[in-house]
Amino acid sequence: MEIISPEGLRQDGRTPTCLRIIKCRLGLYDRPNGSAYIEMGNTKVLAAVYGPREVRSKNKQNLDECVIQCEMSRIAACGGERVRRARDKRTRALSHQIAGVFHAAIRKSKYPGSQIDIYVQVLQEDGGVMSACVNASTLALIHAGVELLDYVTSCTASINKQTAILDATNMEGQAGCEVTVSLLPNKGSIVSLDSSHTVHRDQFEAVMDLATAGCQQVYQELFSQVEAYLQDKHAIMSHR
Amino acid sequence: MTTLEVWKTFEPDNYYKTFLDSNKRPDGRRLLKFRPVVVKVGTVSTAEGSATVRFGHTTVVCGVKAEIATPTLNNPHQGFVVPNVELHPCCSPNFTSGLPGVQAMELSQFIQSVLTSAGVLDLADLCVVPSKYSWCLYCDVVCINYDGNVYDAALVAVMAALQDVKLPKLTYDEENDKATVALERTLPLNIKSRPISSTFTLYSDTVQLADPTAEDESQGSGVTTVVVREDGSLCYLHKPGGRAVPTTTLDSLVLLAAKRVKKINEVIAKAGQEVD
């Protein structure tokens, strides 16, 4: 099957440099300190943040800065095959990576001796799961009011027959490589970078540039959503 | 902090009891009133059937995945239905990560018992080729937000998801001993009965609370779950210890549960029609 048609369009009608539609919501529930939901095309992710709260196990406590823990789980029906174990090695590795991303973004010294827990639940996956998780966690942390250096936005890119494509779906990602970039958009620095399968050295730069540009687009999207949320909230507050 | 919150923090029992004395609960409901139920079907498109159910703030997602399995030697004409409930620390700080806790296991067992005792599916329908191929339906329920009464929410989610299931057609070529599965999912399940559960928290000998929130559950001293089928027959009653209930009270709870069945089944049917 052709990934890119002769007219230059992809299966879902996007151009190679077009993101999928992003839908997100902040503040779904009262119980966690922060929560958010994001849909990037058919990838749907829910994130909840608890904390800053007391450190659960005392030997992990660090009196200079906070402990960040992330736990990601996938519901059994999220992909093509049923997931037998919600926390297999792959999801554990991914959650460790997400925690690592936010080590770089949270002002840890502001919360000495406490712990911030990020729980991510993948409801449906269709490429770019790690990106969706990072974006959802960012929104949830913002909703929780945790001090961040900057937003963290993430996006994937792939390559297909010399053409770099942005925000690859599962099928597009299987055909070529998948490069996931997490970025601090205002600083322009890359926090995490992950590539699967081989990419040719000559093409790598093109893929990276596209993914970075995608992160900036995601940032615009998230920023406008946060702004709308705050305006909404502010409107309610000012009536009181 | 408002004075009300201070009071709640320091005297939770007293705070709660004052509400009950005026026949109300902290969320404004009367004692035997149920929360509004929202059902949405087909929320996880990677599953064969799925549903998201909200009881007030309690939210659960059920996704049904179908796999082809070999029937057991004892029952070569039967397929399988395997319910599984997961309570992650994401939905409430009371749950820990790792192996499923007692509550999650109890819930899985509860759904399994209801499905078999109510005869929701005829397992023989799930068998395609006797002693060779049959469907195994994994009903995985995940709690997304915990605010009490996951029993009812999980059962409604499983029932709604099962009614949403469409299986692909499996054809078996006897000569070459080869089975092929069609790409499109077309065949709905034959649902024989539609049980709905109603959970009550026992607060005192005279006070019962329908559809408890997490706060109600922590204040109460026992639960009773009544499962009634759509024809009005009682198919399962679950009361895991706790406070004793007089039989007259139990009768009235069963009556209340029976009244609710039709209403919830209508909500599920309506959600199914919206998708079509």
List keywords for this structure.
heterodimer; A: 240 residues; alpha+beta; Ribosomal Protein S5, domain 2; five-stranded mixed β-sheet; four-stranded antiparallel β-sheet; 4 helices; 9 strands; 32% helix; 29% strand; B: 276 residues; six-stranded mixed β-sheet; 32% strand; elongated; exosome (chain B)
How is the topology of this model organized?
The complex is a heterodimer of chains A (240) and B (276).
Chain A: E1 22-26, E2 34-40, E3 43-54, E4 67-74, H1 89-105, E5 114-124, H2 129-144, E6 153-160, E7 163-166, H3 170-175, E8 178-184, E9 189-196, H4 201-239
Parallel strand pairs in A: 4-5
Antiparallel strand pairs in A: 1-2, 2-3, 3-5, 6-7, 6-8, 8-9
Chain B: H1 3-10, H2 12-21, E1 37-41, E2 49-55, E3 58-69, E4 80-87, H3 102-118, E5 127-129, E6 133-145, H4 150-164, E7 166-173, E8 178-188, E9 196-202, E10 208-210, H5 214-219, E11 223-228, E12 234-238, H6 247-275
Parallel strand pairs in B: 4-6
Antiparallel strand pairs in B: 1-2, 2-3, 3-6, 5-6, 7-8, 9-10, 9-11, 11-12
Helix pairs in contact in B: 1-2, 4-6
GO molecular function (chain A): RNA binding
Domain Exoribonuclease phosphorolytic (chain A): 19-147, 150-213
Subcellular location (chain A): Cytoplasm; Nucleus, Nucleolus
Largest sheet of chain A: 5 strands, mixed
CATH architectural label of the domain at 31-193 and 265-275 in chain B: 2-Layer Sandwich
Largest interface: A-B, 30 and 28 residues
Instruction: Assign the CATH architecture of chain A.
Output: 2-Layer Sandwich
Uncertain parts of chain A: none
Sequence of secondary-structure elements of chain A: EEEEHEHEEHEEH
Structural class based on helices, strands and sheet pairing of chain B: alpha+beta
What Rg of chain B is obtained from the alpha carbons, in whole angstroms? 21 Å
Order of H and E elements of chain B: HHEEEEHEEHEEEEHEEH
GO biological process, one term (chain B): U5 snRNA 3'-end processing
Main location (chain B): cytoplasm
GO molecular function, one term (chain B): mRNA 3'-UTR AU-rich region binding
Keywords (chain B): Cytoplasm, Exosome, Nucleus, RNA-binding, rRNA processing
